[in-house]
Structure formats: structure tokens, C-alpha cells
Amino acid sequence: MGQETAPEMETLAQAWQLLIGFDAALVEIVGLSLYVSLSATLLAALLGVPLGAALAIWTFPGRGVLVVLATSFMALPPVVVGLAVYLLLSRAGPLGDLGLLFTPSAMIIAQMLLITPIVLALTREAVLPLKRDYDLLLRSVDAGPWLTLKTLIWDARFGVATAFLAGFGRALAEVGAVLIVGGNINGLTRVMTTTIALETSKGNLELALALGLILILIAILINAAIHLLSAFGRRYEVTR
Questions:
Q1: Which residues, at least 6 apart from 196, have a Cβ–Cβ distance to it below 8 Å?
Q2: Cα(13)–Cα(11) distance, rounded to whole angstroms?
Q3: How confident is the model over 201-217, as pLDDT tens digits?
Q4: 168 with 38: CB under 8 angstroms?
């Protein structure tokens, strides 16, 4: 039993050394992962937050269809999104002249398309109750569409922040789409999830394990932040 577990303990020790030694390759991969996922989440928030709030606030023809589509797109298979972006950015595609395929920009686009429905749907859920509470007040002051949108998004800020964190966590964990459009090129498009898949297949478990530990830590921090925001939001609702 001891002989069987010794290699595993050695692998764990080597992974720990990579972490505490701030291995250059490890830092580069983590930095690119955070850059790509944060950029995609910011773009998704710029698009998804106002659209989610608009779907919660206003009634118009086709609104129900858009809500169903938004919630359905939350379950989009990542490889399908990756394939769609690949076809758009390939040389034969309509955006092929931009030369974005197999670059971090392509990965950002793919992640943004994946998480925008998540941010949109969660924002709508956060704004919808406030719309009912504020409806008479906003009508009494004759608030225009822009003021109504800004007011409700601000008052739903804890829910919106939760939507942002949920989208960021989903983006960081993505592998299928970014692998298709990024190509997992060393030093250019290699992020944590694709590196874990590659290094595990090569038997280089030290780097894979170190990156896995970082992903787990980030996931714990994101979930802790979501719980804290939820608790703070509930306390704010009670005291205001």
C-alpha cells in the first residue's frame, strides 16, 4: 500500500513546489486564464445585465419567447458554441479576414457567448421582484426608460454581482469551446482547463494537479463571495 501511494505523494509534493515556487509556466497559464475569463465576463455583463433588466421591466411582443430562449441558451453545449465561433472566424468564414482564430480574442468571444445567457437570466431574476415593488413609485415620478433601467439595476446590484461571479466561474471552468477556437497553443492560448486535459494525457500530472488546485481554490472563493453577497443583500433588504 505504501509503495502504491508513494508516487502519488511525490506528485502532490511536486505540484505543491510548482505552486509555492511560482513556476513561470504556471503563472503564465493562470494569468492568461484570468485575462480571458474576466474579459469575457465583462463583455457578457455589458450585454447581459441591461438586456436581463429590460426583459424584467418591460412587456412587449415576443418577450416570452426571448425569456425562453435566454434560459435555454444557458444549457448550450460548449463544443457547439466553439464550432459556431470557429466557423465564423475561420478563413472561409465571414470574419476570417480578422485573423482572430487561435488567439485569446477568439477564446474571449466563445466564452462571452456561453456566459451571456447566464448573466442575462440571473439579472432578470434579480430585477423582476424589484420591478413589482418600484412600479408605482417610478410611475409617480414619471421616470423614463433610462432612469427606470438604471434605478432597478442599481437596487439589484447584489443579484447582478452574483450573476457576474456565476458567469466568471462558468467561464474559468470552460474547456470545450476554448480548445476548439484557441487550439491550446503553448505560450499563446493555453489556459488552465486545456492545460490540465493536455498534461494529464501526457502523464505530466504535477502541472495538471497544480492547476487543478488553483481552479478549486478559485471556485471556493467565487462561491464564498456569492454566499456573502446573498447574505449581505438579504440583510440590506431587511434594514432599508
A1: 208, 211, 212, 215
A2: 5
A3: 888 888 889 999 999 99
A4: yes
